[in-house]
């Protein structure tokens, strides 16, 4: 990471690096770990938000690849970790193509190092709020065929956009680029009407100066005219859970597990 120090302001935390720290990664700075430690120590159990979100994404990519989707655009992808989108997809579709997009220069550097010899996966730095520029980026134009089904992924990223930045319009732009049979995946922090929600939301807003938790209805509205598939908008831990000793579909979720929800929708 030392080679990047001259281009990164280590006095400011990064969403991607805080998330990396909460998932047990090492690509973060002291300022990121301070935020992560606040969640670990002052909001015990809240790390389940990051873990549940990641596991739901893995299941979604698995199901998409099993259903024949071979192209993925991961917006706000974060730092590489175990079971990245391209790795999960290729277990079921060996020729899957993946474009990763994030605004953090560390994501760009680590992603390019990881994918240096991978001709079917690419990563570049861009702003989620400027979807047209992303769509017209050379890597997207050359990698993704929008005449064929594509999965667009918004994993734990749209809640970092304020209402005046119109996250629904961002999703709508991508939906309009897609052909029938394409998919859009969204996971999002959910308003819980409780002190845990308020504490978590206040900490992230005071840290990053942005973001808003939304209700289930507001999150579903982000999909616009897309067809939301079963089981609808539900907590990540309950979304198409694997069969385990303790089935998340049957057990009572913790308050933290209830604070992040997900949904998958299809363009018809």
From TrEMBL:
Q: One Pfam family name from the record? A: Methyltransf_19
Is Cytoplasm given among the entry's keywords?
no
The protein's matches in InterPro entries, at most eight in alphabetical order, are given as: SAM-dependent_MTases_sf, SAM_dep_MeTrfase_SAV2177_type
Keywords, in A-Z order: Methyltransferase, Transferase
Which domain of life does the UniProt lineage start with?
Answer: Bacteria
User: Molecular function terms in GO for this entry?
Assistant: methyltransferase activity
Q: Name one GO biological process term.
A: methylation
The protein in question is named: SAM-dependent methyltransferase
């Amino acid at each position: 990471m030392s080679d990047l120090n001259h281009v990164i302001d280590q006095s400011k935390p990064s969403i991607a690096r805080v998330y990396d720290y909460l998932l047990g990664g090492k690509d973060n700075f002291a300022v990121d770990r301070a935020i992560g430690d606040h969640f670990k120590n002052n909001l015990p159990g809240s790390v389940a938000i990051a873990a549940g979100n990641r596991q739901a994404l893995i299941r979604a990519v698995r199901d998409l690849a099993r259903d024949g989707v071979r192209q993925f655009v991961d917006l706000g992808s974060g730092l590489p970790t175990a079971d990245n989108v391209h790795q999960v997809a290729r277990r079921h579709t060996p020729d899957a193509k993946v474009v990763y997009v994030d605004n953090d220069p560390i994501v760009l550097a680590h992603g390019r190092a990881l994918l240096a010899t991978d001709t079917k996966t690419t990563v570049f730095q861009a702003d989620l709020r400027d979807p047209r520029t992303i769509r017209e980026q050379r890597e997207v134009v050359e990698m993704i065929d929008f005449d064929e089904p594509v999965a667009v992924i918004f994993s734990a990223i749209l809640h970092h956009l304020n209402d005046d930045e119109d996250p629904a319009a961002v999703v709508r732009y991508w939906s309009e680029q897609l052909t029938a049979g394409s998919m859009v995946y969204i996971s999002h922090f959910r308003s819980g009407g409780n002190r845990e929600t308020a504490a978590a939301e206040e900490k992230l807003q005071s840290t990053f100066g942005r973001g808003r938790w939304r209700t289930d209805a507001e999150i579903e509205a982000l999909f616009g005219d897309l067809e939301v598939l079963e089981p609808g908008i539900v907590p990540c831990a309950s979304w198409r859970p694997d069969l385990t000793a303790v089935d998340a579909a049957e057990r009572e979720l913790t308050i933290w597990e209830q604070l992040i929800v997900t949904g998958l929708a299809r363009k018809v």
